[in-house]
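Here is one chain, start to finish.
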Amino acid sequence: LEDVVTTEPEGELNIYEFPEKAHEQLIWIISLPLLLLFRYTIPDCSKFEFRRYYLITFLMSVFWIGVFCFLMNEWARSIGCQLDISPAVMGLTFLAIGTSVPDVLLSVFVAQNGEGNMAVSNALGSNIFDILVGLGLPWMVSAISSRGAPTLVCSDEIFKSTVVLIGVLATVVIVLTKSKWKLTPFVGWCMCSIYMCFLLFSVVN
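Its structure:
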């Protein structure tokens, strides 16, 4: 057990090594500032000497996720204003895609390892958390700070978005039921097609 604990992970990423391929060099140049930022602000608790700092690792990870989500939201709103795109459409498309990339990568990883149930549960659980906690917690804090006064949600398209969301969920349940709750290529194509229809409806609307 001691050997397992004290052994550091092999093949650690060397962020200072300049890649040989052109596209990898471009990615390296773009990502180097972020890699340096994370390297020196987030303890690598997978290493033996930092294993006791796992809580700091978790908190700093959450902190940087919050910072980048805030910046992404502000930039998306500014771009939407410049292109005359409503905040609702920006939230349903660009912001939704940006915030869902980590979930997608995690779901693909666990699905490739034969954990299909975990992949589906991650997709559903993350969205339930976003709706109930991501929306509910700020509104609760706002209500407490305003001494119980109602919180005004400025969104003219929230009813349409909710109806579309319910319709999409119902369609996904029907597709999974028809496939006997098995993840097949047909289910994947159906889900991608449903999303493209949803995206087209959001933009056209």
